[in-house]
Amino acid sequence: MDEEYDVIVLGTGLKECILSGLLSVDGLKVLHMDRNDYYGGESTSLNLNQLWKRFRGDDKPPESLGSSRDYNVDMIPKFMMANGTLVRVLIHTDVTKYLNFKAVDGSFVYNKGKVHKVPANDVEALKSPLMGLFEKRRARKFFLYVQDFEENDPKTHEDMDLTKVTAKELISKYELDDNTVDFIGHALALHRDDTYLEEPALAFVKRMKLYAESLARFQGGSPYIYPLYGLGELPQAFARLSAVYGGTYMLSKPECKVEFDGSGKVIGVTSEGETAKCKKVVCDPSYLPDKVTKVGKVARAICIMSHPIPNTNDSHSVQVILPQKQLGRKSDMYLFCCSYSHNVAPKGKYIAFVLTEAETDNPQVELKPGTDLLGPVDEIFFDTYDRYEPTNQSEADHCFISGSYDATTHFETTVQDVIAMYGNITGKVLDLTVDLSAASAAEE
């Protein structure tokens, strides 16, 4: 422990592990510690016995649910966009060789009380029951504009500068109704609220293109992929990567007290009476509680079921987004379902999550619009967790703290935080021009 490191990373959550991998690949000397005896921190993956212990204390799970170790229940379940930033990071660091992915079956949206497949291109728009005949034609024109749009080719811009034109102005040009805008903005572009409407349209269009290109990638029913055995595989894959580049991992390190000099700058981390010196610390909010502030909380329901979510074409893995407007809420609600087809449960069993940014103190009532869509459940657990954001000045104290995980069931927001942190830590822009074909997903 007496050595000096460029960076000490505390906590083996997804964000910390990705950063640890990126920094190791960059040639920095990294020490990675966790106070827990397992990988993953808040984003750990639990077997059935661990799940029971966490939510039901000393009770034992019923035998009818099958073997405990056949379950890998991710506490922060998120799908990956096939062409998204996280997949680029995995390829950039070559972690893909430790992981096996499988395409996710379905991507759906809740609209006027029903669950519908998200139409992602002009052909699907014409078939979708989400819109009437004339609206379909208008939507098709808009989808074609987005599909043809190339940022570097002004001929495809239809005389609009999307760095100046707002998303609202772009949409009004195609005369789309509010209902259509709702599912495009929230289920395709994956915006979490409606503030994007007043912002330049370029990001909105790029997000729609990412969805369509990811969907085309594996010819599946969704743009998403997910690792076999769940996200618990990710931290361990990054640990292996870090070791290849000379990084050191230590679990079960109690306390992990961050030490500062007189000017408030980090100088090392002490655990069990030994101090490892470092220039910078990267950690999750739980390691430096006086440098973060609570910004909200997430309500979640975790369900074990013996059938797929109804009205999702019997999808064994699926995301359903419930836009805020459809529920009269301030934030969207997300349904996530995975099953034995991704090796996260025994044969015939499905794991479903309902998540949202909590607006009340009663998750059971608040999540009802989502849990009502699940049909009968074998078991259900409700809880909430607080979300924290850093308040420190990292250029002064050299502490780089990740934000807590939000309620989204896809990785787009999480990985943006990682990339911003990477830039702050290294002063470099992460180059993610990679050959996307390096990550393949097994077909059914």
Question: Would you kindly provide a written description of the structure presented here, covering whatever features stand out?
Answer:
The protein has 444 residues and is of the alpha/beta class. The protein has helices at 14-25, 48-56, 85-92, 122-127, 133-148, 167-173, 178-188, 201-218, 233-244, 324-327, 363-366, 368-371, 394-397, 412-426; strands spanning 4-10, 30-33, 45-46, 73-74, 80-81, 101-103, 106-111, 114-117, 224-227, 248-250, 257-260, 266-271, 274-283, 292-305, 318-322, 333-339, 350-357, 379-390, 399-401, 441-442. The strands form 4 sheets. Strands 1, 2, 10, 11, 12, 13 and 19 form a 7-stranded mixed sheet that branches. Strand 11 (257-260) and strand 12 (266-271) form a beta hairpin. Helix 1 (14-25) crosses helix 14 (412-426) and helix 6 (167-173) packs across helix 8. It is globular.
List keywords for this structure.
444 residues; alpha/beta; seven-stranded mixed beta sheet; globular
SSE arrangement:
Elements: E1 4-10, H1 14-25, E2 30-33, E3 45-46, H2 48-56, E4 73-74, E5 80-81, H3 85-92, E6 101-103, E7 106-111, E8 114-117, H4 122-127, H5 133-148, H6 167-173, H7 178-188, H8 201-218, E9 224-227, H9 233-244, E10 248-250, E11 257-260, E12 266-271, E13 274-283, E14 292-305, E15 318-322, H10 324-327, E16 333-339, E17 350-357, H11 363-366, H12 368-371, E18 379-390, H13 394-397, E19 399-401, H14 412-426, E20 441-442
Parallel strand pairs: 1-2, 1-13, 2-10, 6-20, 7-15, 13-19
Antiparallel strand pairs: 3-4, 5-9, 6-9, 7-8, 11-12, 12-13, 14-17, 14-18, 15-16, 16-17
Helix pairs in contact: 1-9, 1-14, 6-8
